[in-house]
């Protein structure tokens, strides 16, 4: 059974987004009244290599836009089940931040949502490039881009709704459970089913990390962080996956995409993830510290540098040992071992700084 056949067996009356099926796409857009008079689909193509969703650029006789559909699995890893409703959380996020120019102005504009088909339609940002070359050492993150991204977080975090019902709609429990498993739990399990040497393309890594996995103090601190994340401790509206894969460089400047992991929690989580990826991109520790310095200087949200560093340590670990590897990361066993020792230090001794 193909994935499309499986989808229709579960949801027989639901549109299935497929860039190769232009006729079905045109019919869907006509039936959902999303095409203007005389407007028709000219082309559809896959847009990017996202882990989570099917993302398609649609070109019509009048315009271009992006469609994202969430399925009950991860698009890149279909063997992994994922919440079907994650597109609904993304739509809620876009609607919530729309009144804030400092946030919405750095994201694509939400055009519409189809809750039944779990489809989100977004503005096409046009010619844009992702930030994955950072990991290959081909480029560095410009200072102004760093400032712009931290400014985005400064504006985003206070937007957590005060209304309990609206806050509950942003809880995103299933996505947090998925992320909790893949950040804080699965990578440290000895029986997680990953042939680490083969999966990461780094022979010797499994042996090198044996002591880290056996470190009960480290495992306990990571588990405690995971429980904090799972409970949604904290009062900030989070992007939830704030790393270079969620950034695009456009002609108008850096833009932030893919907030499907959004929830209300610790501001330090977004900051820690961002700092972790600067380190994995080969940036010096001072640039990771700069993230915290800029945030404290420009935000009224109080944050703990130690908590942010702990989250950074967990993120480094999961990107080296977990399923969601960074495809362009260029690092040998020596470098990865050094990063894992950094992860241990950040989790256990965060006062020392990055």
Number of helices: 15
CATH class of the largest domain: Alpha Beta
What is the element string, with H for helices and E for strands?
HHEEEHHEEEHHHHHHHEEEEHHHH
Q: CATH homologous superfamily of the largest domain?
A: Aminoglycoside phosphotransferase (APH), C-terminal lobe
How many strands, which pairing sense, and closed or not: the largest β-sheet?
5 strands, antiparallel
Kindly name the structural category. Answer: alpha+beta
Unreliable residue runs = none
Total number of distinct structural domains: 2
With strands numbered from the N-terminus, the spatial order across the biggest sheet is 1-2-3-5-4
- Mean pLDDT across residues: 94
Helix content: 40-55%
Tell me the overall shape: globular
Describe this structure in words.
By secondary structure, the chain is of the alpha+beta class. It folds into 2 domains: 3-123, Phosphorylase Kinase, domain 1 (2-Layer Sandwich), CATH 3.30.200.20; 128-352, Aminoglycoside 3'-phosphotransferase, Chain: A, domain 2. Helix content is 44%, strand content 13%. It is built from 15 helices and 10 strands. It has a 5-stranded antiparallel beta sheet, with helices on both faces. The longest helix has 17 residues, at 305-321. The mean pLDDT is 94.
Features:
single chain, 10 strands, alpha+beta, globular, Aminoglycoside 3'-phosphotransferase, Chain: A, domain 2, 3-stranded antiparallel sheet, 15 helices, 44% helix, Phosphorylase Kinase, domain 1, 354 residues
Outline:
The protein is of the alpha+beta class.
